[in-house]
Design brief:
The protein is built from twelve helices and ten strands. The protein is an alpha/beta fold and 369 residues long. The chain has one domain: Metal-dependent hydrolases (TIM Barrel), CATH 3.20.20. It has an eight-stranded parallel sheet with strand order 3-4-5-6-7-8-9-10. A two-stranded antiparallel ribbon has the order 1-2. Helix 6 crosses helix 7.
């Protein structure tokens, strides 16, 4: 997109908290035309090029990227969490662990099949070992739903690491990841996180994840602190590039949580270096409001970096399930996308962001490992 060509003033984005668009009450099928027909007809949508032999690895099998061309792909959600809570993690003193509802298979089947009706064709579950992801449960879930499920895993952040991580080398952690990636059919590495001050063990795990990426081809996405940390994102990318990883094959996560940067200068800097931008806390009640997130996405698009934008919700809250009256895993198409359209983002750009960009991110040519 030509910078500055299409969007009205950002003031309009800041008005989104009022009215029906901000409330998220629009039906995604009305907005998108899914699932009866794609947003844009195939003959007018630009074709997306993928490397020779590229696949997207789901928990049930490798698929051609073209199979995900008619629906949204959410690159960072949680379909399995605290299932069970890792033995080395202390349970909360009051209430259930975050995301423990995902252990209810029948509930999750209903939630995902309803999400498929809202135009979502693929979801990446980035639960990780230390967050309590159950890869076997994800396989059973995929067998009963209309959504492709991609398993992403690794280790999240140092406070949740297993007790043996401080004594392991980068090579040993990388070997563990490659073993689990094979047995659990990982389609991505993530969410690999760092704290506000990167812990030495987090640096070690991130470097190990980069080694796994280089040996297997698996895409990699990260977690930056939800407090919003500009320096954390830059430091992650510095480490990733120092390992010889092409930034065009990774995504820096939680960039919708950055505060005090409405013109998205950080995001433009990361995109200029080649990285995908993870706006992966949108459309529901987490961190700052959607109006500010819309403003940053608009600024990125206006700067000509629409090819770098990825959307997801990082969903893990039981109270926001469809069963409880919320949007559930549909918050991106049902709540956030109407706000982008109201802010002036045209349909062909939305289609690229929801359908084409995540396919380009997830598609890889497998290596031996």
């Amino acid at each position: 997109m030509t910078p500055g060509k299409m969007l009205p003033t950002r003031r309009r984005a800041l008005q989104l908290l009022g009215g029906g668009v901000a409330s998220g009450l629009l039906d995604a099928r009305d907005v998108w035309g899914f699932p009866e027909k794609p947003l844009l007809q195939d003959e007018v949508r630009p074709k997306v090029a993928f490397p020779d032999g590229a696949i997207i690895r789901t928990v049930l099998g490798d698929v051609d990227p073209s199979m995900l061309s008619h629906g949204a792909t959410l690159f960072h959600e949680h379909l399995s969490l605290s299932d069970p809570l890792p033995a080395w993690v202390d349970p909360p003193e009051n209430g259930r662990p975050l995301g423990s509802f995902t252990a209810d298979l029948d509930l999750m089947v209903d939630e995902l099949n309803a999400t498929a009706q809202d135009g979502v064709s693929c979801i990446v579950s980035g639960g990780t070992r230390d967050l309590g992801q159950n890869a076997g449960g994800l396989r059973m879930l995929a067998e009963r739903t209309d959504v492709h499920i991609v398993v992403a895993s690794g280790l999240w952040t140092q406070p949740r690491y297993p007790p043996d991580i401080p004594d392991k080398t980068e090579e040993e952690i990388a070997a563990d990841f490659i073993r689990d990636a094979s047995s659990e059919r990982w389609g991505a590495i993530g969410e690999i996180g760092t704290s506000l001050v990167m812990h030495p063990d987090e640096r070690k795990v991130l470097r190990a994840a980069c080694k796994v990426h280089l040996r297997t081809g698996l895409p990699l996405f990260t977690h930056t602190p939800h407090e919003g940390c500009r320096q954390c994102a830059l430091e992650q990318l510095d480490v990733i590039e120092s390992m010889g990883v092409n930034p065009r094959l990774i995504c820096i996560g939680h960039l919708a949580d950055i505060t005090g940067d409405p013109s998205a200068e950080l995001h433009k800097e990361l995109a200029a270096r080649g990285a995908f931008l993870g706006f992966d806390t949108v459309g529901h009640q987490i961190t700052q409001g959607d109006a500010l997130k819309v403003e940053m996405v608009v600024a990125v698009i206006e700067a000509g970096y629409e090819d770098h934008v990825l959307l997801s919700a990082d969903f893990a809250r039981e109270e926001e399930l469809k069963a409880n009256g919320g949007a559930g895993y549909s918050s991106v198409p049902a709540i956030f996308v109407p706000k982008l359209r109201y802010a002036g983002v045209p349909d062909h750009v939305i289609s690229k962001i929801l359908i084409d960009n995540p396919r380009r991110f997830l598609a890889f040519t497998p290596k031996e490992g």
